[in-house]
Design brief:
The structure is a single chain. By secondary structure, the protein is of the alpha/beta class. The chain has four domains: about 5-80, GMP Synthetase, Chain A, domain 3; about 110-265, 3-Layer(aba) Sandwich (Rossmann fold); about 270-335, Helicase, Ruva Protein, domain 3, CATH 1.10.8; about 350-440, Orthogonal Bundle (Chromosomal Replication Initiator Protein Dnaa, Chain: A). Helices cover about 55% and strands about 10% of the residues. The chain contains 19 helices and ten strands. It has helices at about 5-20, 20-30, 50-70, 120-130, 150-165, 175-185, 190-200, 215-230, 250-260, 270-285, 290-300, 305-325, 330-335, 350-360, 365-370, 375-390, 395-400, 410-425, 425-440; strands spanning about 35, 40-45, 75-80, 85-90, 95-100, 140-145, 170-175, 205, 235-240, 260-265. The strands form three sheets. It has a five-stranded parallel β-sheet, sandwiched between helices. A three-stranded mixed β-sheet has the order 1-2-3. It is globular, with a radius of gyration of 28 Å. The relative contact order is 0.08.
């Protein structure tokens, strides 16, 4: 992309940002990037998931803004072409399409990565590699299901190295693009050019290395590339949706090399981590007016994939903006129901309720079931009995037996007192709603 086009697009972006509200700009227009500008048209890259909507709703606005900046009528063409791709000429005089050196996604940094129990080891290992490339954990193999943060960590390494070690030569790729580039090099008799691009470097980061499976010649080339880099002391970082031992279609010698360094797995985030991710994303994007109850609902509905989690938040914000409705739990449920319907309510037990009450009020189970009448114990006990009656089908005598052998009249009295307090105390009602959500028994 040339400097003139960069400058033009910066002015176009400024006009677009001024023409719509901030959430709309961030969701639909900020992801656009220019590819080519001619006398009569500009070709713009738009991610496939938003291209149709942007073209339909903002096509005219785009044309107006571009025309204002360049000073002439220009047709806007949406494309899925990669704006980073360039053409180079291979050996033998034939055209060879190769990609420009892939740069890390600037949005993927260690500062933006939310650490939880499911990814703590992988994060620590990635940070160590970024600080001491080639000296620790080489190779670093990060594995986990799609959307849990593998690519984020890989690009965080690249961004930190690019900032603090500008003398290093980095190359990021995917297993699929490595295979594609290798096939193109074979067809254009440009193997030496290909080898130079992937071996005369300091750090190689390959995402989704599982795509090398069942590609015999590509596997062999990657094996030799891996050996050449490792012997030269270059750092290698790989990600995959499975650990090396489960890449059964991959050659044994490659699996053995992948396992020779550190294998760090990432599991889907727990509820606490999912909430932290959403809060951080809302803060980064300047999303205002999203109550915790909204973020909790999103975190409860989407449990496996961080990208889907963040995408759901963006979807809710976009719907709120386009429909001119405030962000609320009701609107969020409406937006999510079609893609992420609420799971059927699980049966709740008295043990579940007691454990959640103890956690919420920082009590031990012994304290909860004791005869103590101090307020810090009495109110949680009454509330636990109340919820046991509300959320289970157990009888009053059965509930009483599970609360230290109390009789049914004590349970009934506790339920009545709790009900009266909840009727008049908004703070207590909010606490109960939070506890119900933790138990998967919210009223939405």
């Amino acid at each position: 992309m040339n400097t003139e086009l960069d400058q033009i697009w910066m002015r176009v972006q400024a006009d677009l940002a001024a023409a719509v509200d901030e959430p709309t700009y961030r969701v639909w227009l900020e992801p656009l990037s220019p590819i080519e500008l001619s006398a009569s048209r500009i070709t713009v890259h738009a991610p496939p998931q938003i291209r149709g909507w942007v073209n339909e709703r903002f096509g005219r606005l785009l044309q107006t803004c571009v025309a204002d900046v360049v000073g002439r009528p220009v047709t806007v063409v949406m494309s899925d072409a990669d704006p980073a791709s360039t053409e180079a000429r291979g050996r033998g005089g034939r055209d060879l399409t190769i990609e420009a050196p892939r740069l890390a996604n600037p949005g993927y940094t260690f500062d933006r990565f939310v650490i939880g129990d499911s990814n703590r080891l992988a994060h620590a290992a990635a940070l160590t590699v970024a600080e001491m490339p080639g000296q620790a954990y080489n190779p670093l193999f990060i594995c986990g299901p799609p959307g849990v943060g593998k690519t984020h960590l890989m690009h965080s390494i690249a961004n930190l190295l690019a900032e603090h070690s500008p003398g290093l030569v980095l190359r990021t790729a995917t297993g699929e693009s490595f295979a594609s580039d290798f096939r193109n090099a074979l067809g254009a008799s440009a193997i030496d050019n290909f080898k130079s691009r992937f071996r005369d470097i300091s750090v190689l980061l390959v995402d989704d290395v599982q795509f090398l499976e069942r590609k015999t010649r590509t596997e062999e080339e990657f094996f030799h590339t891996f050996n050449a880099l490792h012997e030269a002391g270059a750092q290698i970082v790989l990600t995959s949706d499975r650990p090396p031992r489960d890449l059964q279609a991959l050659e044994d010698r490659l699996r053995e090399r992948f396992e020779a360094g550190l294998v760090a797995d990432i599991a889907p985030p727990d509820l606490k981590t999912r909430l932290a991710i959403l809060r951080k994303r809302a803060l980064q994007d300047g999303i205002e007016g999203a109550p915790d109850a909204v973020l909790e609902l999103i975190a409860q509905r989407i449990t496996m994939n961080v990208r889907a989690l963040e995408g759901a938040l963006i979807r809710v914000v976009a719907y709120s903006s386009l429909a001119s409705r405030p962000i609320s739990r009701e609107l969020t449920a409406e937006v999510l129901d079609s893609l992420y319907p609420a799971p059927p309510r699980q049966r709740c037990t008295i043990d579940d309720i007691q454990a959640t009450i103890c956690s919420h009020f920082s009590l031990s189970r012994e304290e909860l079931l004791s005869s103590a009448r101090v307020s810090r114990v009495a109110w949680p006990r009454q509330l636990a009995m109340y919820l046991s009656r509300e959320l289970t089908e157990e009888s009053l005598p059965y509930i009483g037996r599970h609360f230290g052998g109390r009789d049914h009249t004590t349970v009934l009295h506790a339920c009545r007192r709790a009900g009266t307090r909840l009727e008049h105390d908004a703070t207590c009602r909010e606490a109960v709603e939070s506890i119900r959500r933790e138990l998967g028994q919210d009223l939405s």
